């Protein structure tokens, strides 16, 4: 029987020892983390946007530099680093050339023991973050940071809606709190909502018990509505999100865990002046800023207790797909 998740496409193979060419470094990978997108990539879900054959999966990894090529002055052996999600996006707004250059999608990813990186496709991993914690950042944290801080400009007095306890969501919660906002959280169980409360969420709604959760969130905000929403659900959540928004509210369109197509009430968007904007993992500079902010504020990623080895990648992806996790599902490599 064909596995609907496409996990039969995953194979463990031996690769030649990587060498650092000019401007490159070799990194011994120590840890990786899983993202919802990896499930899509494994079954070829990104179509022509992904490398067509022999793709090495996973975008998010951290490790230690073990060799530097000619002309590299930024790094030396022993440096602790994490890889950028988009190696071709250094700073500024998204450009066409960077689209499709994501690791574990357009380019080979980090599910390897050693990998060559361009020297400008890495950022330093601060001493107070472990390799696993660093590996949690390049996609989920960077996307949350881009949405909440860089694009959303969230600050004190803002009211931010966070959907669920997955990787992106918990980072978004942490960054919204770091920025001084009031957080409204929805999730599928009392246990998960308690975790969001422990991370600083002030208002909690169980979306399973309250299918009309948009109204409930609006009521909890005493009729003022959300200034920002981090949209993770997509098809089944966007309507409720719009119900929860303040006029002029900013909806960061990030995820589609309930499906990719939604019906939209266009007059509401026009009359309430909502801003609906896509958010991706952002540039290297943006990743650097988020790493600095986490270090300066002592913020640590929420890592799922259950961990996997690289040989167990299939089991890790199956675990992610079941949705029982909170925060980041991580892979130990070295
Ligand atoms: N735009 C980008 O560049 C970008 C970057 C990163 C991720 N993404 C997308 O963002 C989404 C989340 O990624 P992730 O890695 O954080 O996934 P994840 O760790 O698998 O988390 C998904 C979470 O969605 C929540 N959820 C499921 N159904 C929901 C519903 N009906 N209402 C509200 N929440 C619901 C669940 O939280 P509870 O169990 O707590 O309910 C679940 O933990 C995916 O669609 C991914 O493709 C996009």
Automatic annotation (TrEMBL):
<dbReference type="InterPro" id="IPR036291">
    <property type="entry name" value="NAD(P)-bd_dom_sf"/>
</dbReference>
<dbReference type="Pfam" id="PF08240">
    <property type="entry name" value="ADH_N"/>
</dbReference>
<dbReference type="InterPro" id="IPR013154">
    <property type="entry name" value="ADH-like_N"/>
</dbReference>
<dbReference type="Pfam" id="PF00107">
    <property type="entry name" value="ADH_zinc_N"/>
</dbReference>
<dbReference type="InterPro" id="IPR013149">
    <property type="entry name" value="ADH-like_C"/>
</dbReference>
<dbReference type="InterPro" id="IPR052711">
    <property type="entry name" value="Zinc_ADH-like"/>
</dbReference>
<feature type="domain" description="Enoyl reductase (ER)">
    <location>
        <begin position="6"/>
        <end position="331"/>
    </location>
</feature>
<protein>
    <submittedName>
        <fullName>Zinc-binding dehydrogenase</fullName>
    </submittedName>
</protein>
<dbReference type="InterPro" id="IPR011032">
    <property type="entry name" value="GroES-like_sf"/>
</dbReference>
<dbReference type="GO" id="GO:0016491">
    <property type="term" value="F:oxidoreductase activity"/>
</dbReference>
<dbReference type="InterPro" id="IPR020843">
    <property type="entry name" value="ER"/>
</dbReference>
